[in-house]
From TrEMBL:
Protein known as: DNA polymerase beta
Chief subcellular location: cytoplasm
UniProt source species: Halarchaeum nitratireducens
Domain named Polymerase/histidinol phosphatase N-terminal: residues: 350-430
Cofactor(s) this protein requires: Mg(2+)
Compartment annotation: Cytoplasm
Amino acid sequence: MSRNAEVAAVLDEYADLLEAMGDDYRPSVYRRAADNVRDHPEAIEDLVDEGADAVERIDGVGEGIADHVVDYVETGSFAELEDARDELPVEMDALTRVEGVGPKTVKKLYDALGVTTLDDLEDAAESGEISGVSGFGAKTEANIREGIPFARQAGERALLGETRPLADDVVDHLETHDAVERAAIAGSIRRWRETNGDVDVLAASDAGQRVGDHLADWERVGDVIETGETKTSVRVDGLRVDLRVVVDAEFGAALQYFTGSKAHNVTLRNHAIAQGKKVNEYGAFDIADVDDPDAGQRVGDLLAAETEAGVYDALGLPWIPPELREDRGEIDAAREGALPDLVAEDDLRGDLHVHTDWSDGGHSLREMIEAAAEFGHDYVCITDHAEGPGVFGDSGLSDADLREQMDAVDDVRDDVAVEVLHGVEANVDADGDVGSVSDDVLADLDLVIASPHSGLGDDGGDRTARLVAAVEHPRVDVLGHPSGRLLTERPAMAFDAAALAAAAADAGTALEVNANYHRLDLWGTAVRAAVDAGATIAVDTDAHSPAEYAQRPYGVHTARRGWAEAGDVLNARDADGLRAFLD
Ligand code: DGT
Ligand code: CA
Ligand code: CA
Ligand code: ZN
């Protein structure tokens, strides 16, 4: 991973500070630049090395922003940012993570009450001071108070879409050292959990200290927390990286242990004990003839330690994919030979949720379609937003726009190497209706996604009826990002996953696993409910740019966390199978 995410975060912070100061125009310019820097395929620090002109090659980055980026990468800040931070010295990122608290609210609460941190905000909300500030009522104060725990917890976990690329880079860096025999990602990142407390990696080597030093010396490392023979911890881009070094002969056992989850490991240990065996980070052991199995870590006859598959095999189990290791019945299923044959990245043949510059995407119809062909898709469905509440600006399409887009799709369709479907992403309104698009337009489109874009957030109310009504709508084919959650930013709306799954199965409507790593919506347990109910899922990227097609793995592995097989996935079907489902 490059420093793109870090630079984007700084541009977003500056945008928030400008907005708080009452600047109406520049915040959106900086946010757009931040999005483009974040998604840019080249490393921002490499562009900075080339000079400000190279940075300006990024869409939406003009001379002024490019200069700021160069200053930031070279010196750790830029003058205007420091001035703004001096004027409003608050933890902007943490405070705005509270639902309903934007930059302008932060400024008001700083001016009136001196609130600079989440702790300050909590104190002010609990003592009733916020409702005493002009413009704030008791309801707002209560909402802020209730939003603080989510914001606090969210701040402690990082998105898989940020940690996973970093973990891959750490492994690559470790593998450049000649004393490293193998290296691998472990922990919750290996299980593809959607947020992660830290980055766990494991290396096999007889020279632990040298390997630890090699990590500490990596150019990307900010702070070194500790180094040692077996454990080294550093911080990169604000994320904690924990490295364990073990001997190659015990790498499999260590990988099994440090992949977790803790709950999976506890159940696995009990399964071992029931067979007169023992499993820990050093191996699987037969302890049937041992008087005191707790006399040491390596007590008993060693059965396996070198490979993870060997450890499971020694306990009479097939290898269990990391996505399943959450203690949700996977060990029983393994014992019974009933593990699912999980959907794989290569099983997917197309993407059914894609935006263009007809709505809020950044690229033309032709660019997005050609990029889908280049990505290797057999088919792609263009699904720009219909007009309606919650859709960015006035970017949504009217009936007339959709009719016009049908012709535009036809113009591209014939000379591209991918089958093109034309659909729409309509809004689910409060009653579960799809609002703004008329029925005759819906009928003429190949595919209709209905997604909640407004009335989101968890107000404690049960939204099952709203979502069930949407899946039962006769024109709706896919329910898009059903909960509306934005990881670490906005909680999922509450709904009964089993009831939604049953309704979707009955209605023949697919439930989306939105692969955008800010969403991952549905998620593991909700996918499991869908699969158990016999509902179909659709793993789609919701791409707003060609680069976002590459977020597909996050969706596939999230579906795997829900025990999904290829047969459960709409876009694992070939084009004929897809059309049969849509008709
Ligand atoms: P995270 O970091 O909160 O996203 O979740 P994990 O699962 O990566 O947890 P972490 O980093 O604390 O530990 C990595 C793995 O190491 C964990 O999944 C299982 C194993 N592990 C760590 N500490 C313990 C422990 O005290 N008991 C057991 N059974 N396993 C542990
Ligand atoms: Ca971890
Ligand atoms: Ca850890
Ligand atoms: Zn969308």
